[in-house]
Design brief:
The protein is an alpha+beta fold. It is built from 22 helices and 16 strands. The chain is elongated, with a radius of gyration of 36 Å.
């Protein structure tokens, strides 16, 4: 048999991978004919079979999705009137702390509005609104590309119909399931409502900031006119608010709202809604804000965090529950410390945060019911000597150390002569002593040596955003800022990371682009150690000694001109706390300094929060010169600190607390022999001068 012959009934593998030879041997029972084999389907038939299977699978999936949507998404409610929104704020433990409703008006009808009003919203939000079926593939692709290039979410691809589905009927979570429900509801709305009805519902329900929902309410609130009479710049401003309603609200950020409205008008030109010549001739919209009909309700903390909570909740039209960073136990402790402090006629503010800026307690005044004005976040008062933190940070960065010697002697800078309180000077002292005793002339000398620009840079690095003067008195804290910013600056030292942004909501995960662009910085180990040394000296042996705890305590006092403001800011454990005492009418408070009442409130709260106990201020052993004891006592008296003195065989103890033992405690008089008359200005108060005006 030749090599290429094939035996009947056998097969061989051909060189090309196919089969050759006969398929089957003849069957004698069939008359020698080969057995019948089933016909093999053609390639076209096989493809059609797969298409039918795919279509059936898609149909089954569609039915499952419809059933799932009917169960999980409120289709039965999507065509009904939308209920007014509300938001409930929760403490970190999940306890409700405040609930707020919304300002609304009757719905709008887009057919009754000037054409440029809906066009402004379509230009910036969804310019193909009248042509797409509820989703816009081109818009989604464009947004995805721009977000990829930006390295984070910078633009959304949702249509107005999708936004209505999300805002009105869904939660604010960002899961894929919610996004799918949003798309399906969008199709449902497009099937049952006309485009004009969808746009009318959308404009009647979106959030415009300042607790205002719906176009009519926003038009009346910001411009005191109905939406039927809005001009192009006004419509553009309102359309621009939707990107960040609370941040861009013209009630608080008119400049930002106007900048955003320019982008909207440019988009209107690009979409062909108005021509470039018309846009160029339009002036920015002014505002005529109508007073809110309802006063804020809740707490100082709730009022502060609510705008961001609304933005994060997505202005959803149902009750939203937003968890905050407030610690209910710490808040009660803070309220107790303030309530038992004996404030007299003075106001008070207290804020406590973690080193990363997470606010856990806030008191903006003596009584929220009497005055909802938040003195933690809204009042811009002079920080006094607490501002010296930045002066000394600039000095440490310049290569100085706590042991560097500085002159504590009278000083003249131009036509200004800063002075220490009471005219008391100590000659050559170390920076540790100068910071602890809050020497004014030493701080001014340091600022002059390193340059005011370096002091300002240090303040900016640690998060101070308020305007800072360029006069020498800046070193003594004569530029107004908020207690919140100052406390966050001290938190930067506590946590060795700056700047610290005080926040009342848990921080969201940031994109890699945001982390790269806005990276946190830290102090080098030497600089931070020097700053901790200075802050420990002030809080344990200096003007802030009445705040000292058993735990390692760091802080600084501040007292402004004529005792108009008294402040103590410090940290211990994992808490950073700032306390301010003052009057709303800015009148002086005789004998009240940062090392007195504010430090005692700080100590009472922190001791409770850290389960700690205050410790005696200072022990003077018999070998220490008596003059040092008298000097320490004089400083304490000037701060308005109540001292007790105990004598023993081992030495003398000065304490702000009752002292144990059989020896009687002696109350130290405020007026010591050879000292000034009673009720003197605290040691860290700047003296009156033309360049250091009182707070306004």
């Amino acid at each position: 048999m030749s090599d290429d012959s094939v035996t009947p009934g056998t097969t061989e593998l051909a060189a090309d991978g196919g089969f050759q030879g006969s398929v089957a041997a003849p069957d004698p029972s069939l008359g020698g004919l080969p057995p019948h084999l089933p016909d093999q389907p053609s390639p076209a038939a096989r493809r059609w079979r797969w298409w039918k299977r795919g279509a059936l699978a898609a149909l089954i999936l569609f039915v499952v999705l419809v059933i799932w949507l009917a169960i999980t998404a409120p289709l039965s409610q999507s065509l009904k009137p939308i209920a007014p929104p509300s938001i409930t704020l929760l403490s970190a433990e999940g306890k409700p702390i405040a609930r707020r409703g919304a300002i609304i008006e009757k719905p709008v009808d887009v057919t009754a509005l000037p054409k440029h009003v809906p066009q402004a919203f379509m230009a910036i939000e969804d310019r193909r609104f009248y042509s797409h079926p509820g989703i816009d593939p081109l818009g989604i692709a464009r947004a995805a590309w721009r977000n990829m290039v930006a390295g984070g979410v910078r633009e959304g691809g949702s249509t107005i119909t999708q936004q209505l589905a999300k805002v009105a009927f869904l939660s604010a979570d960002r899961t894929a399931a919610r996004k799918l429900r949003e798309v399906l509801i969008a199709f449902w709305l497009e099937a049952w409502l006309s485009k004009d009805e969808i746009l009318s519902r959308y404009l009647s329900n979106v959030y415009f900031g300042d607790n205002v929902y719906g176009l009519r309410a926003a038009s009346l609130h910001y411009f005191s006119r109905p939406p039927e009479k809005l001009t192009v710049p006004q419509a553009a401003m309102l359309a621009g608010l939707l990107k960040a309603p609370s941040r861009l609200s013209p009630a608080v950020n008119l400049k930002g709202a106007r900048e955003r409205s320019k982008l909207v008008m440019a988009a209107m030109v690009d979409a062909g809604f108005i021509d470039a010549k018309t846009a160029a001739g339009l002036k920015p919209a002014g505002v005529n804000i109508r007073p809110l009909r309802d006063m804020p309700t809740g707490t100082y903390f709730a009022d502060w965090v609510l705008p961001e909570a609304r933005d994060r909740a997505g202005a959803v039209y149902q009750e939203q529950r937003v968890t905050t960073t407030l610690d209910s136990d710490l808040q009660r402790m803070a309220e107790r410390a303030v309530r038992t402090a004996g404030l007299g006629s003075a106001q008070v503010a207290l804020v406590a945060m973690r080193p990363d800026g997470e606010v856990v307690a806030m008191i903006g005044g003596r009584s929220y019911a009497d005055s909802p004005f938040n003195r933690v976040t809204q009042a811009k008062r002079q920080p006094g000597s607490t501002f010296k933190l930045f002066v000394y940070l600039a000095a440490m960065r310049a290569g100085m150390s706590p042991d560097t010697v500085v002159e504590d002697t009278p000083l003249v800078v131009g036509d200004w002569a800063p002075a220490n309180s009471g005219g008391r000077y100590r000659g050559k002292i170390t920076l540790r002593q100068a910071f602890a005793l809050s020497s004014n002339v030493a701080a001014v000398r340091l600022a002059q040596a390193v340059g005011l620009d370096q002091v300002v840079r240090a303040a900016r690095d640690l998060g101070i955003t308020t305007p800072l003067g360029d006069q020498p008195s800046l070193a003594l804290g004569t530029s107004g800022t908020t207690l919140l910013e100052m406390t966050a600056a001290y938190a930067a030292v506590a946590g060795n990371s700056y700047p610290v942004r005080a926040h009342g909501l848990p921080e969201e995960e940031r994109s890699w682009f945001d982390r790269l662009w806005d990276r946190k910085r830290s102090f080098d180990s030497d600089t931070r150690e020097k700053m901790l040394t200075l802050l420990a000296a002030a809080a344990n042996d200096g003007t802030g000694r009445s705040a000292a705890l058993n735990a390692r305590t760091y802080g600084k006092t501040g007292t402004t001109q004529d005792n108009r403001d008294a402040i103590f800011i410090g940290f211990a454990g994992d808490l950073v706390t700032g306390v301010w005492i003052g009057r709303d009418d800015n009148k002086p408070m005789a004998g009240v300094g940062g090392g007195g009442l504010p430090a005692r409130i700080w100590r009472a709260f922190m001791a409770d929060a850290l389960r700690d106990q205050p410790r005696p201020v200072k022990t003077v052993i018999e070998e220490e010169p008596v003059e040092n004891l008298i000097d320490d006592a004089a400083n304490a008296a000037e701060e308005g600190i109540d001292l007790n003195v105990q004598l023993s065989n081992d030495g003398v103890i000065i304490s702000t607390q009752p002292l144990p033992g059989i020896n009687a405690s002696i109350s130290l008089p405020v007026d010591l022999p050879g000292q000034r008359p009673s009720a003197p200005a605290p040691a860290d108060a700047p003296v009156a001068n033309a360049q250091a005006p009182a707070n306004q």
